[in-house]
Design goal:
single chain, 242 residues, Spore Coat Polysaccharide Biosynthesis Protein SpsA, Chain A, 9 helices, globular
């Protein structure tokens, strides 16, 4: 069994890098749909004993109530910045229970129960720190660890390597987990295009329902195609900062 922590930023300001494709209202709707997909998986997983949503967003309490999970106000933790907030939250969770902790982002719309099961299986078999990397294998979308093996949280540029390095410096073994449901976070238009492909292949959920609507889905496809047609031929290797 494990407990899960999901930090959620203000939905109004969420996904600003998608401003060329989605309006502010649509970006907020997308961010909420994605976190609801994540919470659906966690709240119904038989090996997750508790889920805590950390957010100051005005809708966070309502979302938490919908899924029967805990909600902590970000400002109540008396710290600022993603890494200090996660660190303090994990300290509080460890005080409440000795169960392992999974920290994951809320923009993983393709997350499945099997992904969480794989995380917990890896933790049970190998211990140490499980790092769920993004599709670029540079960012971190998920961390899992026993309460005594909490890492130095280093979300940001090249966080995957930094999480592994800091764990190694403390003598904690690390396993990098590569799974499509964990790897696809949605921050940029390219990510959104990949998500649209997943939806076309039959992926369901709140996000799929939002983006498969005839009006929005069609417009997103048209906009993404237009951006691809006008983009420079030079490719970029930069990934999302997580």
């Amino acid at each position: 069994m494990a407990q899960a922590l999901v930090p959620l930023k203000d939905l109004v300001a969420a996904k600003s890098r998608l401003s060329g494709v989605l309006s502010p209202v649509e970006r907020r709707s997308l961010a909420q749909a994605m976190v609801e997909d994540v919470l659906t998986v966690l709240a119904h997983h038989t090996q997750i004993s508790a889920v805590t949503l950390v957010s100051d967003d005005v809708s966070a309490a309502m979302i938490a109530a919908k899924y029967g999970i805990n909600h902590w106000l970000e400002h109540s933790l008396a710290c600022r910045g993603l890494n200090p907030i996660i660190s303090r939250s994990c300290e509080l969770l460890a005080q409440q229970s000795e169960q392992a902790i999974i920290v994951l982002h809320g923009d993983l719309p393709c997350l499945k129960a099997d992904d969480i099961s794989a995380v917990l299986s890896g933790l049970e078999q190998s211990g140490g720190l499980i790092v769920g990397c993004d599709r670029h294998e540079r960012g971190t979308n998920l961390l899992a660890f026993a309460t005594g093996d909490a890492p130095e949280f280093s979300f940001g540029k090249d966080s995957c390597a930094r999480h592994c390095a800091s764990a190694a410096a403390r003598g904690i073994s690390t396993q990098i987990l590569r799974r499509p449901g964990i790897a696809l976070d949605v921050d940029e238009p390219r990510d959104l295009g990949l998500l649209m492909d997943e939806i076309e292949q039959g992926h369901g959920g709140h996000t799929a329902a939002l983006l498969s609507s005839s009006a929005l889905g069609g417009r997103v496809r048209t906009q993404l195609a237009s951006m691809t047609a006008t983009a420079p031929t030079r490719s970029s290797s930069k990934g999302a900062v997580k």
